[in-house]
Specification:
- Helix 1 runs antiparallel to helix 3 (about 80-105) and helix 3 (about 80-105) crosses helix 6 (about 175-185).
- The chain starts with a helix and ends in a 9-residue tail after the last strand.
- It is built from 13 helices and eight strands.
- The longest helix is centred in the first third of the chain and has 59 residues, at about 5-60.
- By secondary structure, it is an alpha+beta fold.
- It folds into two domains: about 20-235, no CATH class; about 250-350, no CATH class.
- Strand 5 and strand 6 (about 310-315) form a beta hairpin.
């Protein structure tokens, strides 16, 4: 076989391999975009509802909720306080988003997610271990509460490149609407709200000296923490970063970041991630300082902030796995926002300064080493 023919065959093989590899990469990127869009619709609301329920459980178990609600049960209709109904709404929200994720979310095949959601449901329904008192909701009551807390909006289309898919979209019922429905004797759900289980629960929240159902709630709290931790590891970020207690945060300024929510992933492909941060829309100083900080991180090539959309796009080059590096970016932004005064921030390693670096003694080697660039000031 002559060299020209061999070269032609080799070129054709290389072209075919390159085409197949490119197509596979594109398909993976499309699937990742679709998965992230589904997570934004289903997983993020579950995380928020889960953390809200976790905080409420903590308040009930340490007595704060009981102290606040005791004596307030004569609110409006003389029987149940608004705070007790809101607590019930918090349970209903979690039941709703948990059910949605079991049917529609990106983790319907994840064994641990399914196992923990089912375990939480069974703990609420368990009569053998915890009896039949307060906070005992049967599976049917959990499903009914879920339906009362979420509205099904219908089908929406998700686009990723040239691909599109139809998914079911849901919206949460506001607490005030839930309360109005709870108090309405003509409501279609009056039978549910008047059931012994629900009435027993709200009355315990309003009037109990000692919390009935403590063992059940403690078990639920432990399972819920496992679920939230697992989901946050899968997603690569935590929605509870803004709850860090301590001194005012350093980094991007205590006043600027007092109410800053953690970033959420809007889109990601190999070498690029786009995050949503609503604070970017209203706080230009925060946006400028955050962008300046991220540009100093190692392997970050470009940072683009869209203040209108409240998003920040980060392009990077790294030999590490994309999911690991992206998780590091999310954690580092959280650290930048929430590092307390006087603490050393644990950021992604900074990029080395370009050009000729000045020299300074290195005590360990008795020689000289390049001086590190000053970190971008955040105060």
């Amino acid at each position: 076989m002559d060299p020209v023919t061999i070269l032609s065959i080799f070129s054709a093989v290389v072209a075919a391999v390159w085409t197949a590899w490119t197509w596979r990469e594109q398909q993976q990127a499309v699937r990742q975009v679709q998965r992230d869009q589904a997570a934004a619709l289903y997983v993020n609301p579950l995380l928020l509802a889960g953390h809200q329920l976790e905080r409420r459980l903590g308040g009930l178990l340490d007595g704060r909720e009981l102290a606040l609600n005791k004596g307030a049960h004569t609110d409006q209709d003389g029987s149940v306080s608004a705070a007790a109904i809101e607590t019930l709404w918090t349970f209903a929200q979690f039941f709703g988003w948990a059910a949605v994720n079991m049917r529609h979310g990106p983790y319907t095949r994840d064994p641990k997610v399914v196992e923990l959601i089912v375990a939480i449901s069974r703990t609420f329904d368990d009569r053998e271990r915890f009896g039949d008192g307060a906070f005992r909701f049967s599976t049917a009551e959990q499903e009914s509460l879920a339906q009362s807390a979420l509205r099904r909006l219908g089908q929406t289309t998700l686009h990723a490149g040239e691909s599109s898919s139809a998914v079911t979209e849901f919206a949460a019922v506001a607490a005030v609407d839930f309360e109005r429905d709870f108090r309405d004797a003509q409501s279609t759900k009056a039978g549910l709200y008047g059931s012994r289980a629900l009435r027993n629960t709200v009355e315990v929240i309003d009037r109990a000296e000692q919390l009935e159902g403590r063992e059940r709630l403690t078990a639920v709290q432990q399972l819920l923490r496992l679920l939230l931790d697992h989901l946050e590891r899968l997603e690569g970020f935590s929605v509870s970063l803004h709850e860090v207690r301590g001194a005012p945060p350093k980094g991007i300024g205590a006043a600027a970041t007092a109410n800053v929510a953690p970033p959420r992933i809007l889109h990601r492909i190999r070498g690029r991630i786009r995050l949503g941060m609503p604070e970017l829309r209203t706080n230009k100083d925060f946006a400028h300082r955050l962008g300046a900080l991220i540009r100093t991180w190692e392997d970050v090539e470009d940072v683009s902030i869209n203040v209108t959309a409240g998003s920040i796009a980060i392009r990077y080059r790294t030999t590490a796995r994309d999911d690991e590096f992206q998780a590091k970016i999310l954690a580092s932004i959280g650290n930048a926002i929430h590092t307390t005064e006087g603490a050393a921030p644990t950021f992604v390693p900074r990029r080395r300064p370009q050009g000729v670096a000045s020299k300074q003694p290195d005590a360990r080697e008795g020689g000289t080493r390049p001086a590190r660039r000053q970190q971008v000031p955040l105060q």
